[in-house]
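Work Package 3 (structural annotation) set out to generate three-dimensional models for the target panel prioritized at the project kickoff. During this period the team completed the workflow that converts sequence records into discrete structure tokens, so that structures can be stored uniformly alongside our sequence database. As a representative example, we reproduce one entry of 307 residues exactly as it appears in the project archive.
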Amino acid sequence: MNSTIWFVDSYEEALAKNIVIVSLGFIINFINGMLVVTFFSNLMFSRDSRYILYIHLVINDMLMICISVTLYVLSYALPFINVSWCYILMALGSTTFMITPLNLAGMAIERFIAICKPLHHSQICTPQRTYIFICLLWVLGAIPSLADIIILLSIQPISFFRSVVLCYPFNLFTSKAHKDNTTVSQIIYMSLVWIILISTYCRVLFTARKAASKGSANKAQNTILLHGVQLLLCMLSYLTPFMYLFITPFFPAHRTKITFCIYLLTNIIPRLLSPLIYGVRDQKFMKQMKEYFTCRVIIVKIVASKL
């Protein structure tokens, strides 16, 4: 997760950027919050591993948005913060960032089992096993951050954690070991996720060609393809330094604007796609959301009219 901000903005430009970021973060989390409320309003969803994994992805994105926006605002309002607090924010941001592709892989596996092994789906993808899988995702997502703190403790004195620092990854993690840990963990995790997505898609495609009724199989293919599209967008964060180095020479006078646009493209906008890709496409979920919130709006109007 990136939070590269430049301190050469005018007051008006800095204010405008923060308003845009905070507003987008609020809008995205508001939409995602509606999805979370819809999920918990109907027990039917909590018994289906597909919806459990989906809502976990939404909640994870909400946490990531909160942390990312907080780091962005702090970079202007309070750039120098305590190292311990900086690490906590960085670790939470990194963990939620790593969980997103892992969660997408889990959703692809669930669709593969539903289409290719339908008779065993209810036994394999139980709610209990899904929650255990989610716990495993958090453990896997936290491993790189735990490795970072171990490396940091081994090379820095305890007094370092009581000091203040510009809260950027390159200020907090300066050693080659940190860079190697980040590179290796990202390569391993992303390679694993891509292997899972490609293999499940191929198996579902093969099953669809043999199936007498291809509707659900084709829908599963499209869903896994969308997982791949979202994963590609999430991986834009890895290209941030290269994007900046490539674009900046053409517009040297607009460095801060380029940085801001890249941040929006790689950190904020991809988080908006989860509700659009999954919630809106799912007719059952969309129907329940419309019914739930329509009833609430009607109740509010009736109460307001009586007051």
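The chain has a mean pLDDT of 82.
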